[in-house]
Amino acid sequence: MTKTLTLQILQDTWLKQAPRQSSELHSSARLFIEKGKSLSITGYGSGPESAGDDVTVHVLVQLSTPLSSKRAWYAYQRHVAVMDGDALLFPAPEVDEGTGDRALSKTPNYTGKRLRLPSGATVYTDQPIVAGGSFSWGEATHGGTRSVQKAAHEQNIIRLAIALQKARNEIGKPFRVTSWYRPEPFNSNAGGAKFSQHLGGGAVDIAVEGFSGAQLANRLVQWWPGGLGIYPGNRRHILHLDIGGKRKWGF
Asked: Hey, which of 47, 88, 144, 191 would disulfide with 113, CB 3.0 to 4.6 Å?
């Protein structure tokens, strides 16, 4: 069963297509939301820092129902809360002893390679893509050696990580990422399809100890939102997952 989360709007704010000041964005890339609104979401990504401002932290949420034809939106952390029922998930609840107000969560200290994303956000190779999740930006970018080239690729990586975390939680065992983001020339060098979902960060190949690719696929096929592919021969332990159109092959 899919967990129902909500994004609570704590004060008048903007939902945005990039973690920047709303005044810097075109009107088509921002959406005003009034205080008190509650939006259903399917997941949320770790809050990247905005370029040039280590305090302005955003969270990227995946809406259950699109707004302005888009599901993925950034929100300023001080203005929102991600809730699981009555439980606060994001930001971590820190209370100012003087006022009793909820304070801005501190960004964890990461020691990995620093990456600048197309949106202007800064992340690190050891930073989870999804807040508190199992998959890092390093796993998505091959240890930080593959720079994320487009904003759409950045959002694909986050959307895939949200779905992948659900799969990881269902299986209950660690996933080993064998391939994720493959912009050219990496996709061609790996023998990938000309229009592979890997090109835009929307596909991942994983392996799980004790499972064949077919066994994993059979566990996930009923709800996985995109493509599932299993391989023959010495790759039969690998499962391909992507967020493209819903389809399957190799079964």
From this structure: 144
Q: State how far the Cα of 138 lies from the Cα of 128, in Å rounded to an integer.
A: 9
> Residue 108: inside a domain, yes or no?
no
Residue ranges of alpha helices (H) inside the chain are 137-140, 151-171, 186-189, 213-220
- The CA distance from 137 to 158, in Å, is 9
- ∠ CA 132-47-18 to the nearest 5 degrees? 145
Tens-digit pLDDT profile for residues 73-88:
999 888 888 887 766 6
Same domain, 58 and 139: no
Give the pLDDT score at 2: 46
From residue 26, alpha-carbon distances to 74, 168, 174 in Å are 14, 37, 41
- Separation CA 91–CA 80 (nearest Å): 8
Please choose, from the candidates 108, 106, 133, the residue with its C-alpha nearest in 3D space to the C-alpha of residue 123. 108
Domain limits for position 74? 5-103
Distance separating alpha carbons of residues 180 and 156, to the nearest angstrom? 11
**Looking at the whole model, is its pTM more than 0.70?**
no
Q: What's the number of domains the chain is made of?
A: 2
Over residues 62-71, the mean pLDDT reads 92
Q: Interhelix angle for 213-220 vs 151-171, to 10°? A: 90
Q: Look at residue 99 and tell me if it is in a domain.
A: yes
Q: Give residue 1's pLDDT band: very low, low, confident or very high (50, 70, 90).
A: very low
What percent of the chain stands above pLDDT 70? 86
C-alpha 100: how far from its chain's center?
Answer: 32
